[in-house]
Amino acid sequence: MDQQAPSSQPLKASGEGLATASLATGIVGIVGVFVPLGLFVSAIAGLLAVGFGIAALVQPERPRNQGHAYTGIALGSVATLIAAGTIFVFRHVLWGVITRLAA
């Protein structure tokens, strides 16, 4: 039986997992915008997508799937902006309605 000895060289981080995580969380962020009460999840997922994408692109060895990282950054940015804008608008609209009803 032929067994291979374990390699003594350390594994190199290529950033491919981070790029894929960026894409996946970016998709979750965009989908969360359209789900009722998913705005907070969408904002958090969007921020994570941007962070994962940037982390993947600054790796010493660039990932082969750079497109995943760039797409995750774009989707995450859009999801965060939409979620934050919607939360801001709803907060001000609801606050206006509540203050008018209380008066």
Order of helices and strands: HHH
The biggest beta sheet is recorded as: none
- Main structural class: mainly alpha
* Helix percentage range: over 70%
How many E-type strands?
0
Which stretches are low in confidence, meaning pLDDT under 50 for 5 or more residues running? none
**Alpha carbon gyration radius:** 20 Å
Number of helices: 3
Q: How would you describe the shape?
A: elongated
Q: Roughly what is the average pLDDT, rounded to an integer?
A: 85
List its traits.
103 residues; 3 helices; single chain
Task: Give a summary of the structure in a few sentences.
By secondary structure, the chain is mostly helical. Helix content is 72%, strand content 0%.
Describe it:
- The protein has one domain (16-102).
- Helices cover 72% and strands 0% of the residues.
- The protein has helices at residues 16-33, 39-57, 66-102.
- Helix 1 runs antiparallel to helix 2, helix 1 (16-33) runs parallel beside helix 3 (66-102) and helix 2 (39-57) runs antiparallel to helix 3 (66-102).
- The mean pLDDT is 85.
Topology:
Blueprint: H1 16-33, H2 39-57, H3 66-102
